[in-house]
Structures are given as structure tokens and as C-alpha cells.
Structure of Transposon TX1 uncharacterized 149 kDa protein:
Amino acid sequence: MGCSSDVRGFRWDFDYLGSKKLRNVEVVIGSFSVSVKFALDGCGPLWLSVVYGPNSPLLRKDFWVELLDIFGLSFLLWCVGGDFNVIRRSSEKLGGSSPTSSMKDFDGFIRECELFDPPLWSAPFTWSNMQESPMCKILDRFLYSNEWEHSFPQNLQEVLPRRISDYWPIVLDTNPFKWGLTPFRFENMWLQHPIFKECFRSRWRGFHGTGGSTSKLLVQRALRKGELEELILREEIHWRQKAKVKWVKEGDCNSEFFHKVAKGKRNRKFIKVLENERGLVLNNSESITEEILLYFEKLYSSPTGESWRVEGLYWSPISEESASRLDSSFIEEEISKAIFQLDRDKAPGPGGFTIVVFQDCWDVIKEDLVRLFAEFHRSGIINQNTNASFIVLLPKKSMTKKISDFRPISLITSLYKIIAKVLSGCLRRVLHEIIHSTQDTFVQKRQILDAVLIANEIMDEKRHSGKEGVVFKIDFEKANDHVSWDFLDHVLERKGFSPRWRKWMRGCLSTVSFAVLVNGNAKGWVKASRGLRQGDPLSHYLFTLVADVLSRMLLRAEERNSLEGFRVGRNSTKINLDKSNIYGINLEHNHLSRLAELLDCKASGWPIPYLGLPLGGNPKACGFWDPMIKRISRD
């Protein structure tokens, strides 16, 4: 069923695709809008408004008053869209724009009504003046209330191809693909249920099974999961009321705000279309899922016949005392310390249970966990189910088209996270012995800020010297994902780690498998044979060990006055020239451009982002800190 209206040349079309039917349709016509009130089977009444905003600043005040009146009529279930004829932020105009009173009024209207402003898909702007040097803006958009979001939780705003007009059509899709079942996830608020702790205690201690501690924990967690689902279903209404009261009391009335933040993040992560390597646009769940799984199968597969060895370096091996200390048995205190250091609110992996369960029920499960660590100390084996992961895809930018535009983050099981946290704590205590002083990150008593300060001092000195020079900022492509496990074991061996510790590290890596969360639903299982997981507490420290080899290779090359002859293998870490930049120091722009063309990278100006801070430029200048301020405001 469809309905359409015209407001000063702007056409509104809406269709409800599905089994629900439109009922009780009413139309309200204003000076700048046409609103439709209707009901649907299962939800309603709903309000849809289409607008055409005036160009006159005087009339805009009447425009906002009219929309506020409609919002008051809608009983919060409201969606408004159309040509607002004003941008909300400076970034919504090509080349930027200074803040204006109209922009502030628009932003104030959105904030007063507490409306969602969903991101645009497929194009960065909705209007262009069609000139050779075009002016482009976001003048059209959909906005909707939190209550509308509850009724249509997967709204997607898309820009359609333009034909003749200077406007691109936009559509709000409220009926996206069905992606399958969402994995079980423990909600931390369930711990407040009056019978949860006692139920957990009695069932956990009453379980009698066979097998080791790992198997027992897995079976027990499965039992808990089923009982929790039954418990929540049985007392759903009571629990919702109690949870709401608690959130309002302890959340300082901010639960609505955090809910909106979570919804906004979910919408940004939603994948509706994807472009494959051949440039074809995929727009259905099957083809999108297949493309994503193929990508990760290739990414985490180690090339056959690959051999990674580096000879002739000074490795700075670990002391015998430290190596022996690393092999010591795990004790209850260090396990407990690791558990309570972990973030209790982090998203869970395939097991579904968050760290808060282990923290709040520590007195119940500690004996089993201590036995599990003793078993791991002896065997070095981690059960494949314990080492399974979800990959969640986080967009690196607002316009995500290809799978490479997403950053894969691993959601690992809480049980593995505890094991890795204990091991990473042990490793962290000895890194300062074996990592070169040029490496500042993740090493005790060293600060990453030192690298920024040193780099700034070098830039300053070179600039004042008047001598020409270039800075080549290199980005390594998928550095964590391309780490060879064989090479990592080689590094651990040359660094003097014991066979037992190396066996533990192989146990943490060799049973890794991934399911990819595609729009919240787990798809496929990918068996990894290389790479370090982002989200694994061990990954930072293991990558630091690998990166130390590169540091020592560069230092040796410097000693020989040469950077040649240190290629490790044909499949070693690749330079990502798309993200690499060259910067000139007292250098003519023409010369810099020729160098950039020769290196097939970008020529850029100062200041530059380095380790999250601006490098070069004048820190006293007004605009020097703008990118950092903008980033903090966005986050």
C-alpha cells in the first residue's frame, strides 16, 4: 500500500512492505509540511511528515515552530523527512562552512525533540549546483524519534541515483533483510534478579560430569544459558519494570541517552550493500555474507610453503630468571586479579557470558577456574570452543562501500579472555628486558607520548636548519592480521622463551576460529592459520615482539649505511601506499609532488596526525588543535 504527497515541488512516496496494513489514515497540511497519521497492525498510531524548508531566515523561525507543533501532536511516534534547506554541521557542505544561526537553530530543533539523525548511505551529499567546481550540501534527510526507532529498529537512509534534478532522491528503508537469529548474550542487569545468584550457585555446584575442568565449564555455561533464558521468559514483565526503576535511579535518568547512543552505533554498523573486488554492488543477505566470509578466509589463511626466519640480529634475549618465572604455576591471586581488571561491560564472544558473571560469581567458580589453569599449565591446550571468536565489523569512515572499509574487532569468550589476561600480565613484566628502547608502546616505564615529542623535536630542528628533506609516513596493511605464527614462534625462540611458554602461545593461537557478525547475526566459521586478534589481551604484546624485529633490522641497516638486503620473505608485511604519505621539509611543492609520484603515494602538508596527536606545524596557531577537538567531540 502506498501514499504520496507534494509540498512545493518535493514529492513524498512511502510504501509499507510487509504483512501489516495501514489503518485510520489522517492528513494534516501546514505551511511547510504535510503530515500523515496512520496505524498499523501491531503498532501505532504513527506520524510521517514531509517538509520543504524556506530559504528566508525570517520564515525559518515559523518553520521550526510548525515542526515543534507536529511533534507535540505525534505522541513521540514520528518520522520527518524532506528538504530542510539548511545544513546541520559545517562538514555537511563541500569545503566546509562557518557556523551560522540557521545551523544552530536546526541542531537545536533536533536536540529539543531528541530525534535520531541517521547517516546517509551511498553518497555524501544530497544537493549540488551542478557547476564545474560544484557546491555540494546535505539539505535532505530523515529524522525520527526514539519511539519510531523502537517500532522500526533497522532504519536505513539511502541516497538514490540522480537523473535530471540538482537533488539526489533519498529513501528511508524500514524493512531490511532478515539476517537470521541473534546469538545469545548475557545482559549484566540480569544479575540484579533476586534469585539469580542462588540459582547459579546451586546449579553450578550440583553439576556432576566427566572430563577436565575446561569441558565442565563449557557444559555448565550451556546449562546456565538455557536456565537463564527460561528464567527471563517466565518473569519478563516483572523484570522489565524492576530494571527500568534501577536504571532511572542509578543511571541519573541517562538510560535514554545511552540507549540512543547504542542505537546510533548499531545503525552505523549495519551493512545493507557491499561492493566486491570486481566493483559489483551486492544488495542481498546471501551475497553479502558470502563476500565477507571469502574475504576473512583469505585474510587469515597463511600462504603454503612460507618460511619466516631472520638471522644476524642481536635479539636481546630474556634472562634465565625471568624465563623461569614465566613458567611458574598459576596461583589463585593472579587469576582473581586478572578477572577483576577486565572491563565488566565489554561485549561477549560466542559463549554469550560477560566478564561480570565471573566477577560477581567468583566465590562459586574460583575452584574450577584454578583447576582449569592447572590443566592449561600442564597441556598448553585451549579447547576450540573456548577459543572461538565473533568478528564485529566497525566502519572506519561514514561512507563504507567495501569490506576493507571496516575494521574487524574480535569478540572472544570470557574464559579465553581470562587466560589471555593472566598470560599478558606475565609477558608485560618482562618486555622491557627484550624490546629495544626505540619502541615505547606497551612496555612498562615507557610512554608513547615520548615518540611524539621526539618526532616533533626532529621536525623543529630540520625546519630551522633550512635544509631540504622529506618525511615518509608509512602505514602497514593489516599488520596484526598478517602476523605469521611460525615467525612469532621463531622470535620467541630467539628471544630465549622456554619451550613451555612457546607451547602456551601456540595453544592460544592454533585453535582460533571466527564467525563473522553480519548485522548482528553469526555467519560461517573461518579457521585461522595466521594473525593476531584485535580484542585479545595478548595481541598487543605479541605484536610488539614482532615489531621489535623490524626495529632491529632498521638499526642494523643504519649502522651499515644501507637499507637494502633485509627483505624477510616475499609475503612479508606490505606497505599500504593508499594510506602512506610524504611530507616536505623546506622543499618546493613541485619537488615533493615528483617524489610522491615516484613512490606512488600522497604528498601532504603539515601538521600530520601521528599516534593520535598533531606533528609539525605551529601548536600556538588557532587551527592547530582543531582535528583533535573535532575527534573528541565526535567520540
